[in-house]
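Follow-up to my earlier ticket, as requested here are the two runs.
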Amino acid sequence: MNVPAPTPPPRYRPRIAIALIAACLSVVAAWQLLAAPDARARNALSGLTAPDREPSIALPNAPVSQRQSELAALRDGQIVGRALDLMRRRYVDPARMRPREMLEEALQAVAHLVPEMLVDAPQLLADGQPKTLRLRIGESTWNLDAAAVTDPLRLGWTLLQALRIVADHLPPDVQPARVEYVAVNGMLATMDPYSHMLDPDQWRDMQTNTGGHFGGLGIVILTQEGVLVVQSVLPDSPAQKSGIQAADEILQIDGEDTLNMSVDDAVDRLRGEVGTPARLLLRRKGWAQPQEVTVTRAVIHLQSVESRLLGV
């Protein structure tokens, strides 16, 4: 019995497989090109580096200053990205998010922080919102396409572009991280008057004020015509034990003049580690000369509620 020899596979089959693989790769490449803008926006919102950013080169043993690290973080826009992501997912009324208005107010807020920075809208849309936003710092000018900012994703991408421009021209006396917090609060102001993003210093102050205790002297101060004045003294506090009274004027704190010092700055100097001394130069009505008083800081317990028994 003769068994026929097996038929060899056609030679064109490998060619068909190669052609199919090439076609799939072409489809994937085309899809990546079409999705590029949205991908950039998503990267901006998640705090990731945009895909078209020039790669950074890490040189061995090259020291990186704190300033350089902060500027790099500003260029990545991580704080703005996370804030926008929270707004998009959790804000109580998403209809209040108007991306073009949010972009303009964010940049206007940054312009109040950065000297020589100006923002205007040379072109408007039919509804009065900006079509183009012009960003000027010194002699340089950039135009941002505000008309394309139609959703939070594109808002994040366009704002990231602006933050990189600001980072490249930021004066040395402006903290890079503060730029992002100012931009976020500019956006929040367009939605309601109550939402606000706290920077780390504001958060610590709030935790201290609401926590009920901190290291300090036990006085409440205010300013009157540029002069720090003791408004009240807490009972059993170090200040009361040192003889400080209401209406005393604080002329110096640890040798530093307090004229025109803000209340916040004074509070920062008066608070400190428990057991450390604070030297105050006080002026009081009836004294011939100001006197220096040294007060040792202690844990101050705030009594947020006062009570007394009413007679029936």
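Run two:
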Amino acid sequence: MKQYSIGAIAKLTGLTVHNLRVWEKRHSAIETDRSDSGRRIYSESALERLKLLKSCVDNGFNIGTIAGMSNEELRDILQEFKSADEPTAKKPNLTVWAAGAEALRMIDQLEKPPFPIDKVTRFTDTDHLASAHNGGQPDMLVIEQASLSAAEAQNLGKLIKRINAPYVILLYRYSRQQDVSYLKSLGVQALKSPVDKTTFRDLTANLVEAPQGDPILVPIKQVPPRTFSDRALNKAAAMTSTIDCECPNHLSELIKSLVGFENYSAECESKDKESADLHHHIYLRTAQARAILEDLLQSVLDQEGIDLSRVNH
């Protein structure tokens, strides 16, 4: 089996030696062996994995969010990008579920070309939709709900997750912004009524034509562990770097703020049962933002050769 030096791996992957060391030490993204003299040795399987990781990073992913994924998961991600780059095949006809008079009126006004709507299933309102749902799944779900209380938003969110349609549009008139934000966090496209025909048509066209999902914000189900303790962040905030750059100071202050808000949102999740789902989403995304900034801080420290464990403050 072939073995490669770090210099050879850098040339074969397009990664810098610095990147390779950070990916191994900071993210545990790859395993290496050591020669008798202590130099890193990379196997063929390590080379293959690094190429997969590099391709995902080139497509917009943060190394901190994908380092723990298996090679198979990385290949699945890259296959999605490959499919998106291939010539678009003719789209199959869409099945649409519409609940509410305004939702039905908007769907009926869509011209059949370029919208290949095959079948529209009609519901008088969301209560009718909830009671009639028996496990089916449409391509598009359009819902009209004139007003939304916090409890109604939570119930609607549960219904949307149960139906799990690829495209969801909500037409509403009155609602708290936090309730609309919660539904948007589930992938819902929310339009404040009255909605004109052109706006609805353009949104529908963009949804159907755009690739699904957001490749940058990888879905997460658990909170990334903290990289820096409070003491380490205080050290970084107080230091003056060797290149007169204040990035360690600013990044550490931002991370401390996010840690504080992360703890706050976790407390909100446990206290406010009515909107626990929304606060859990905020908690996870805040933790993800914190992990991204921790990765940036570590990169700055590595670039300047700073080891916080050896900094005395």
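The only thing I checked on run two: The beta strands are 3-4, 33-34, 40-43, 94-99, 117-123, 140-144, 147-148, 167-172, 174-175, 189-192. Let me know what else you need.
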